[in-house]
Every structure is written in structure tokens, then in C-alpha cells.
Amino acid sequence: MRMLLPSLFCIQLCACKPVIPKKPEQRRPDTTMIPSADTMIPVPDTIMADEITSWSRFEDYIGRYAGEVDLLDKEPLKERFHRLLNRDSLLFFQRFQVAPPIEIEGNIFYNEGCQPHNCGMDEAALVIDMNRDIIYAGIAVKGRVKIFAEKKDTAYPQRLREWKQKFQAK
């Protein structure tokens, strides 16, 4: 009886507990990665276009003088121009002091200048291909010309080639 009493007590104790329903098991998703449906992911054959700067404001400078409009202090030209010429910026500025009015011919911005009392030997030219967004600069020191171009471009606009040609004729 001693054994029977504790056994009955355990059975009764277990029988009095309310039945708790089991929660359904939550399944974890498979570890397989589902590929993204994003169609804008660049792949090796994707052409990434460079941001094109707007030069439209510079069209307002036609017929005006570079010094009058502070041309070389206007963005986007200022920063890019200094980056292009780097240490040769001073040579350019010394040779761009006397300049005719700014010209734009078929989206090619053109201006040239020279050192006071030394035109013909010490000059500078600024050309911007506004369609291709490339800045070119030319510096002539004692008739020897050095051309600078963004993106290492060598397809110089006609106006820059003509400017350079006048020093080769001398």
C-alpha cells in the first residue's frame, strides 16, 4: 500500500493539469539564396555613362570678355581647369591676360589670350567641347605649344588645332 498511495497521488496530480495544445512548428526557410530580380545591376558588358556637366550657362558669355565675366572662376570650369593644368595654371593665367570676346561655334566654346606686349609668342587658349564635356587648354611659351586635354583625349577640336598651327608656321 505504501507504493500504491504515492503512485495514485502522481496519477491524480497529472490528470488535474489542463491540456495545453502544442504550437505548430515554425519552419525556417531554406538556406538557398533567391536571386534578386533587380534589372539595374551592372554587369561587365554594361556601359556606364559619365555624368555630363551642363555648359548651357556658358552660352550667355558669347561676345563678352573672359575677365568681365570671371570666366575661370565659374564652375564647373574652375575646379576641372585647375585639375587639368595643375602646376601649369600660372603659365596659363600669365598668357591669358589680353583676350578677345568669347566665341561659341557649334557647341565648341573658344577663347584665347596672350601676355601683354608679347602676343604671338606667349599665348594661351581655352576650348570646351560642350557636347562631349571635355576641357582643352593650350599654352604657348616662346612659340612652343603644349596642349592639355581631359580624359587624355587627342581628338582636339578644330579651333584648338588652328590655334596650335599658327605657332608651327613661325
Protein architecture, described:
This protein is of the alpha+beta class and 170 residues long. It has a domain at 56-168. Helices cover 23% and strands 18% of the residues. It has 4 helices and 5 strands, in the order αααβββββα. The protein has helices at 4-16, 77-85, 89-94, 158-168, and strands spanning 103-105, 108-114, 123-129, 134-141, 144-149. The chain has a 5-stranded antiparallel sheet with strand order 1-2-3-4-5, sandwiched between helices. It starts with a helix and ends with a helix. The mean pLDDT is 81.
List the helices and strands and how they pair.
Elements: H1 4-16, H2 77-85, H3 89-94, E1 103-105, E2 108-114, E3 123-129, E4 134-141, E5 144-149, H4 158-168
Antiparallel strand pairs: 1-2, 2-3, 3-4, 4-5
Write a short abstract of this structure:
The protein has four helices and five strands. The protein is of the alpha+beta class and 170 residues long. The longest helix is centred in the N-terminal third of the chain and has 13 residues, at 4-16.
Q: What overall form do the CA principal axes indicate?
A: elongated
Topology as a string of helices (H) and strands (E)? HHHEEEEEH
Residues in helix, %: 10-25%
Q: How far from one another are the termini?
A: 132 Å
Main beta-sheet annotation: 5 strands, antiparallel
> On the 0-100 scale, what is the average pLDDT?
81
How are the strands of the biggest sheet laid out side by side? 1-2-3-4-5
Structural class: alpha+beta
Number of helices: 4
Poorly predicted regions = none
Strand coverage percent: 15-25%
**How many beta-strand elements?**
5
Radius of gyration, CA atoms, in whole angstroms: 38 Å
